[in-house]
Amino acid sequence: PAHEGEARGGFAVMEQNVWNTGPKFTRGLDQAVQKYCNKSLPVGFVPVRFGSWMGGDRDGNDNVTHEVTRHICHFARWITADLYYKEIDALLFELSMFRMTDELKEAAEQANQRRKHTKTKYLTTLYKEFRSGIPEKEGYRLILAEARDRMLLTKRKYEDLITGVTSAPNEKAQEKMSHAGAGTYENAEELKETLRLCHRSLHAVGAGQVADGRLLDVLRRLDCFGLTLVKLDIRQEATRHSEVLDTITTYLGLGSYLAWNEKERQEFLFHEIQNRRPLIPDDLPTTPRVKEVLDTFKVCAELGPESLGAYVISM
């Protein structure tokens, strides 16, 4: 479909250009701040974030359905998981030092125990040196190995959702890791917490230059791109929402929303926003147009706030 092709093209630009340009730009900005202000940018600083309408801009266009929106959001998460998997695996190769804080040492021991419990042997690494295992004294690598495994499971989860195929090995591996307290990544803060721990420890043991290399770049990517690459804006034409509300009020015997004047509509909406009870009955009879708007809201709730930006109602 044209909308999915448009999204693939847009994501290709993000993956092949912006993904690497973003950290380089922030690093250059940081150097300028150090030179002229004698300070460094904070770890969580991000000068720009990205949004998109690809797969979300329906605006009365019946071809952009809730299925299209869901598919494109899953596709964006799959691309992003693949990119982070490669970055984490590269960090796993770089961070070979033994010196660490007590905080990191404790976290590494816990991560190592979880990995021993899950025994997800089919998970691979880009570097053959780690396929036989990681020495327990290499705390950074133990922590990053678990993060890499979780990111690979995340990538495979979205592969399955995109293709509609249920992969038994993936489900079993995810179930094992979930029971051990480490399943797929669903929000960026989980991964940021792990990487910030490594960053703090490296600075504390005198390896600040290492901490502020690739590791800091990945942290800045997480602040810029999250786990979704872009936040998707949803846009729909105003009359479509009026049709939905008219269907609801008519079915409930409250009158016709479309026949009310502006003051009556505002009073109704204000009252319902304040009311905690559900407004939409499960058995609400709908037209395909009304059902599509309601299904879009359901998909938005399913995808969660990390995938979505603004909801725009055009007049």
What's the topology here?
Blueprint: H1 2-37, E1 51-52, H2 66-94, H3 102-118, H4 139-163, H5 168-179, H6 188-204, H7 208-225, E2 231-237, H8 238-251, H9 262-274, H10 288-303, E3 308-314
Parallel strand pairs: 1-2, 2-3
Helix pairs in contact: 1-2, 1-7, 2-4, 2-7, 2-10, 3-4, 4-5, 4-6, 6-7, 8-10
Question: Could you name the key traits of this structure?
Answer:
about 325 residues; mainly alpha; 3-stranded parallel β-sheet; 10 helices; elongated
Describe the structure.
It is a single chain. The chain has 315 residues and is mainly alpha-helical. It has 10 helices and 3 strands, in the order H-E-H-H-H-H-H-H-E-H-H-H-E. 34% of the residues are buried. The chain has a 3-stranded parallel sheet. The model has no long low-confidence stretch (mean pLDDT 89). It is elongated and about 70 Å long. Helix content is 63%, strand content 5%. Helix 1 packs across helix 7 and helix 2 runs antiparallel to helix 4.
**What's the number of helices?**
10
Q: SSE order in H/E notation? A: HEHHHHHHEHHHE
Helix and strand composition category: mainly alpha
What is the percentage of strand-forming residues?
A: 5-15%
Distance between the amino and carboxyl termini? 27 Å
Instruction: Identify the strand order in the major beta sheet.
Output: 1-2-3
